Amino acid sequence: MSTATPRPALQPDGGALIPGRHIYIERPEDAELLDALRAGEYCNLLTARQMGKTSLMNRVVRQLRADGVACSAFDIGALLDSEQGKSEWYRGLVERIAEDLELDLDAAAWWSSQGSGSVNQRLVRFFRDEVLGEGDRRVAIFLDEIDSTIELPFTDDLFKVIRSIYNDRGLVPDYGRIAFCLVGVASANELIKDRRSTAYNVGRTIALRDFDPQRDDLSPFYEAFDDPDEGEAVVGEILRWTGGQPFLTQRLCYELLELKGDQGSLGAEDVAAHVERQFSSHERLSHDTHFQQIDRFIDERVSDRLATLKLYERVLAGKPEVDRANRQCAQLRLSGLVKRNAEGFLQNRNPIYRRLYDAAWLKSVMPRQLVRRVAAASTIAALFLAGAFYYNLTVTEPLQLATTEQFAILRATVSEIEAQQAFEVLTGERPVPGLTLPIFGEASLRGQAEQATLDYRAFWNRRADSLETRALQRLEDGDEDRALLLGAAAMVKYGGPLHPELRAIYEERGYSRLYRTIRGSFAGWDRIDFSRNSRLVAITGADGVYEVESGKVGFPIPTADLWSVRFSQDSDLIAGGTGNGTVNIWNSNSGEQIGTILSDEKPHDLDFWGAYLAAVGLREDGGTVSIREVSSTKEVFRAKIPRRGRAVRFSPGGEQLLVGSTRDARLLEVATGEVRHVFESGAVGGVSFS
CA angle, 668 as apex, 666 and 674 as ends, to 5°? Predict the structure, then answer.
C-alpha cells in the first residue's frame, strides 16, 4: 500500500528550509548561482538577513554533488570559535574542509607539520596539494555566515589566499577546478580589513531579490490555502505588505493560514487587520528575532551611523537617492530596510518596515550632534577678561574691544581666511602657514603680536589635526588616494612628519622621494591635486608641478601665486586660480600656458568636468559659483551663494555641483541652478562626491 507524500509546509520561524518538508520558491538567482559554479566561477551571495541565502546554498550544493562536484559547505561563524587563536582557527577551517571533501588526510597533524610556513603559505599548499591533489575532480567550497569574520583580526589571510588562487588560474591550471562561494551579510569590500591591501574584488556578486509574482512561481503558497484562487488573492495582499521579503512572506502566509482555520475564509481586509495587530509598533516587536537582527545591524555594523541614518531619512521621505557604490548605501541595503529598484534608486523594502522604522524610530536612534558652536558672546567675553589680564595692555577701550574680538576669532575660528585677517589686524603683518616669530618694531605691540603669532600657529595645528583625522577616516573607508592627499596637507600645514600609516602607503607605492620633496620644498599652500593618471602632483605655494615618480619638478609654473589648482579628468590640463581674479590654463604635458579666464572674483577652488571648468569665488559680500567652457571661456552657468565660496566639485555625471562656503555646503542642479540640498555643516574647507 503506497503512502502519499506529505505536501511541503510553510516555515514561519526562519532558518534554512528542509527539502521536501518546507515550501521553497525558486528565483532566477537559483539558476544563476548554479550555472556560475558549474562553470567554475567564484560567487558572492551577499545580502541582508533572512533572504533565503542558506536555503539557496544548500539547494545548489545538492545539485552540484549530483553533478559529481565535491562540495564543502558550512557556517564558518558557528564552526570556528572566535576566541581561538589564529593558528587554531585556521586549523579548524582546514579540518572541516578535509572532512567534507573526504580527504585521506589527518588535517590537524598536517597543519602542525607545516609550522615553518605562514598561514597564507599553508593554506595555498592545502588547497593546491591536498584539496586538488592528483586527479581531475572539481571542487566547490561554500563559506556561510562570512560576516562573522569581519570582527576577527586575522581572517584577511583567508580572503587573500582565495583571491590569489583565483588570480593564479592562468599559471596553475589545476586552480581552474576549484570555486569558492561566499555567503553572508557583508559587502566584498569589508572582507579584507587591512586598507593597505587590495579589497576582495573577485567573483560574481549575485543579488538575491524579493519574491515577485510577475517573475516567480508562487503557486506553492497559493496551494497551501487549499483553495488556490483564494490563496492567490490572500498571497497577493500579503505581498503588498511584505514587498516579497522571503521570511516575512512565509511568516504571514503561515499566520494567515492558521487564521483561516479559525474562521473558515479570508479576504484582503483580514490580511490588513492581521498586519495592524501584529506589526503595530517597533517597541512591541523589540523581542522579535527578525527585527532584533535589523536593530543589531544598525547598532553594531554601520560604520558612519549619522550619515547612513540621514540617507535612510531621505529614502523614508520619498526623495530619490541613487544606490551609489559607497559604504552608506551598501550598509543600508545590508540592514534590509531598503533595496535597489529597477531604475537604480534606493527604496523602502516594504510597508511593514516603513511602518515600524518610521520617523519616530529614526529620531530615537539618530546620534546626537557631537560638535556644537560656542556662543560668540560668551567666547568674546571670556577672552576679553583673559586678554586684559594676560597682556595688561595700556590702550583705549575701543582698541581693547577690537583686540579682544580678534583674539576671540583667532582662537575659535575654523576659517583660514578669518584667522589670516585676525592675525593681520593684531600684527600688521600678512601671515603664511608655518611662519616664524617676526620682530616687530613697535614695542607697545610686541607682546600682542607674539601672542597672536602663537595663536595663529595653534590655529594651523588644529587644522592639521582635523585634516589628519579626515585622512585616517578616508583610509578606513578604503579611499587611499584621498587619504594621501589629506595626509600630505596635514603634514605641510603642521610642518611635522606624515602619519606612519599614510607614510607606509607612500613608500609601498614608491612615493617616498616625493614625500621628502614635499616636506622641504615650500611653505604656505591652500590646494593640492594629483593628475588622474598619477603622473603629476600640483601644489599651490610650491615652485612648480612635481613628477610623482621622481619627486622632482616636472616643469615650472607659478604655483606660488595660485589660490587653487586642479587637473582635468584626462590629466592633459591644469587650471590655476590666482588672487587677482584670473584662472590660467596650462598643458600638463608641456607646461605651456594655453589660456586665461578672467573672473570678477578670486577663484578659491576649481573643478573640471569634460570640457567645462567650475570656479567658486571668494569675496567679502558673499560669492558665486560659475561654469565656463574651457575652449571658448564662455560662461554657461552662474549661481549666487550667501557666503564666501571655499570648495566646489562636479557630481560624477556632471549634472550637479556641490559647493562649500564659510557657512554651509549646497548641492545645486546645473540645469536649473536650483538648490537641491543645504548641508548645515558650518564652515567647509573641501567637498567631494563618492
Answer: 115
Helix (H) or strand (E) holding 70: strand 70-75
b/e map of 150-170 (b: 16 or more CB within 10 Å)?
A: eebeebbbbbbbbbebbeeee
Please state the rounded mean pLDDT for residues 225-247: 94
| Ramachandran assignment for 478, one of left (phi > 0), alpha (psi -120 to 50 degrees), beta (any other) | left
Indicate the burial class of 182 (C-beta count within 10 angstroms; 0-12, 13-18, 19 or more). buried
| Torsion angle of the four alpha carbons 460, 613, 679, 353, in this order, in degrees rounded to the nearest 10 | -130
Say how many C-beta atoms besides its own lie within 10 A of residue 331's C-beta. 23
DSSP string of 336-389?
A: TSEEE-TTSBEEES-HHHHHHSSHHHHHHHSPPPS--PPPHHHHHHHHHHHHHH
Residues 325 and 690: beta-carbon distance below 8 Å: yes
By CB atoms closer than 10 A (0-12, 13-18, 19+), residue 178 is buried
**456 in Cβ contact with 419 (< 8 Å):** yes
| CB of 586 closer than 8 Å to CB of 508 | no
CA nearest 34: which of 136, 140, 132, 127?
Answer: 140
88 three-class SS: helix
In which band, very low, low, confident or very high, does the pLDDT at 305 lie, cut at 50, 70 and 90?
Answer: confident
Grid coordinates given for 523: 611653505
- Among 24-38, 146-160, 351-365, 419-433, the minimum mean pLDDT is found in 419-433
